[in-house]
Design a protein that fits this description.
Length: 611
């Protein structure tokens, strides 16, 4: 969601802030602004729409100074207008904010009654006035005014504050929304996400809830929620700035789709040994007493694409390790009174590690004393800091809003976990484990083969890009792949698409089929082959245009459907990972053909840090 950047140093702050905001664009936004200290005061420039508008405005009226803050806003309270864009100012206090202040109306009424004048519809402006109010009251002590104010805020926030009367000094505070701090010899930085800091440092300090800090020319002073001076360890982020760039591809999403074979090696290293046919997950030691698991059942919580990975993970774990698994939308989990105890392993799955609903579900699990194992991409993110153990998916930075490589990486990690658990619990014979490990190691080649179908997929994408409704169907492990294919298509092409368990079609959704409605079916040569062929016949009989993602060894499929995307044949566990590739490519090429903003689709944010 909103992007935040702050800089204190010796250079001109404006280009540094703009570069930081550019690197955070992927988070999704609809207006932007900066505040920079120049000639004894802070100057603010804000614009609606994309960063290029802000750059243009700053080119016309440059602001130059050695410290400042920048923000990209994803509208929650109030339209995406210039007046609602951040930074907001009240007196000498200037604020940028990510999150939602739930009691802002109540506070606004109190402050308005005290004579404060509001100019925007945002919840953020309340923070600004509240700090200013305490600042005036307490004899102009900014740090204490911030401390007083944040105790009165309900909801989530990551805020960066400047005081127009204080040089080379930024204040930061966080509860619920992410903030990361970094420094070089001459400068201090703060941002809402890692990529903004990568050009300057890879060692980063991830603020905990309640933390607040002062960033100045002298250094970083960190305090906990009680105001006590504290030190926290910096964490090394193994990403390079280049990894967060397009590298010659038209879009980040396309680059990330094509990175998938390569990242598999990072996932396997140290975990999967072909020579010894073993799976080692040292990170999970704490979840086992010897070979005995400290849990009897598993509950997975996630949102969006990560939820689809969870659904496939459930099949993998139950089928291989025979441990019961439930899967919940993280946003529903807390509200359905889940049955949890200290023998339930809760697995939050999240690419970003900052998704508010997943984080809240994880916190509930911790309150109930459940062991928690996160599956996550971002080192040091909130979800990993709360978990007892983390299985990192090592996908590298994912910038495109539509998740692609993180999805397949999540699937591979869940499969590795399922095999590991099956082995620990003696639910898999050694030769079978050996076969599975050997096959797993072929995955980079299988994914490369699937990617080589890009031109065929592009042709099919052009043919279906005028459709008003597209259905995706699959069975068993491939039903969530159908859900994921439909999600990818809707989020970046804005076409209506739905995924269904193929057997469910005749219970209602088949009514949607008209002459020419595209139906994309995952048709592996497994135990469900005949069943899904019957489902294809049913939609064909009603006029559907059928596209099969089928095995390259299936010689008869081409006579049964209109188009075939022939992916390499593999086991039922790896098929969803391989089938995901053409699904992603299809969505990408439809969107690209339609000319939508593939990497930053309308209304969406990469990391959903509000509920
Ligand atoms: C994926 O394409 C979506 N943009 C979205 O559904 C995403 O997967 C979801 O918001 C969860 O994000 P997370 O994995 O970072 O928690």
């Amino acid at each position: 969601m909103c992007g935040i950047i702050g800089y204190v140093g010796n250079e001109n702050a404006t280009p540094i802030l703009l570069d930081g905001l550019r690197r955070l664009e992927y988070r999704g936004y609809d207006s932007a602004g900066v505040a920079v200290f120049e000639n004894d005061d802070v100057k603010i420039q804000r614009t609606e729409g994309k960063l290029s508008n802000l750059e243009l405005a700053l080119a016309e009226s440059p602001i130059k100074g050695s410290f400042g803050i920048g923000h990209t806003r994803w509208a929650t309270h109030g339209h995406p207008t210039e007046t609602n864009a951040h930074p907001h100012r009240s007196g000498d206090i200037i604020v940028v904010h990510n999150g939602i202040i739930e009691n802002y109306l109540e506070l606004k009424d109190l402050l308005a009654a005290d004579g404060q004048v509001f100019t925007s519809e945002t919840d953020t402006e309340v923070i600004c006035h509240l700090i200013d109010y305490h600042y005036q009251l307490n004899g102009k002590d900014t740090l204490n005014a911030i401390r007083e104010s944040i105790t009165k805020l309900k909801g989530s926030f990551a805020i960066v504050i400047m005081n127009a009367k204080e040089r080379n000094r930024l204040y930061v505070a966080k509860r619920g929304s992410p903030l990361v701090v970094g420094e070089t010899k001459d400068a201090r930085f703060v941002a809402s996400d890692i990529p903004a800091l990568l050009p300057y440092t890879k060692d980063m300090l991830f603020l905990e809830d309640g933390d607040h800090a002062v960033l100045s020319s002298e250094g970083i002073e960190l305090f906990d929620e009680n105001g006590a001076n504290i030190e926290r360890e910096f964490q090394h982020v193994p990403w390079s700035p280049l990894m967060a760039e397009k590298g010659g591809y038209k879009h980040f999403m396309l680059k990330e789709i094509f990175e998938q074979p390569k990242i598999m090696q990072d996932i396997f290293t140290g975990r999967v040994s072909g020579a010894r046919s073993t799976i080692v997950l040292d990170e999970l030691k704490g979840l086992f007493d010897g070979n005995k698991a400290r849990f009897d059942r598993i509950s997975i919580v996630a949102c969006g694409t990560s939820l689809h990975a969870a659904m496939i993970g459930k099949h993998m774990i139950e089928s291989l390790a025979r441990v019961p698994v439930s899967v919940d939308y993280a946003s529903e989990f807390r509200y359905r009174e889940p049955i949890l105890d200290e023998r339930t392993l809760v697995i939050p799955i999240s690419q970003s590690g900052e998704t508010a609903d997943t984080l809240a579900a994880e916190k509930l699990a911790k309150e109930r004393n459940c062991p928690v194992m996160a599956v996550c991409n971002v080192v040091g993110s909130s979800i990993t800091r709360i978990a007892d153990a983390t299985l990192y998916i090592y996908a590298g930075p994912e910038i495109g809003v539509a998740s692609t490589k993180a999805f397949t990486a999540q699937l591979v990690v869940l499969y590795i976990f399922a095999l590991y658990l099956a082995d620990k619990l003696n639910k898999i014979e050694n030769d079978i484990l050996k076969e599975r490990v050997a096959e797993l190691l072929t995955l980079p080649r299988l994914l490369k083969q699937a990617l080589s179908l890009a031109d065929d997929v592009m042709r099919i994408a052009k043919d279906i890009s005028d459709a008003s409704n597209i259905l995706y169907i699959g069975r068993r492990l491939n039903f969530p792949v159908a859900l994921e294919g439909a999600l990818k298509l809707k989020e970046i092409s804005y076409l209506h698409a739905e995924g269904f368990a193929a057997g469910e079609l005749k219970h209602g959704p088949i009514a949607l089929i008209e002459q020419g409605t595209p139906v994309v079916a995952v048709v592996p040569q497994d135990g469900t082959y005949d069943k899904i062929l019957s489902n294809i016949e049913e939609v064909k009989a009603r006029g559907a245009y059928t596209i099969a993602i089928a095995s390259d060894q299936d010689e008869s499929i081409s006579s049964k459907v209109d188009e075939v995307i022939a992916v390499p044949k593999t086991s039922k566990y790896l098929t969803p990972i391989v089938a995901a590739i053409p699904m992603q490519l299809l969505a990408y090429y439809v969107a690209d053909h339609k000319g939508t903003d593939v990497d930053q689709p309308r209304n969406l944010a990469k990391s959903v840090t509000v509920e």
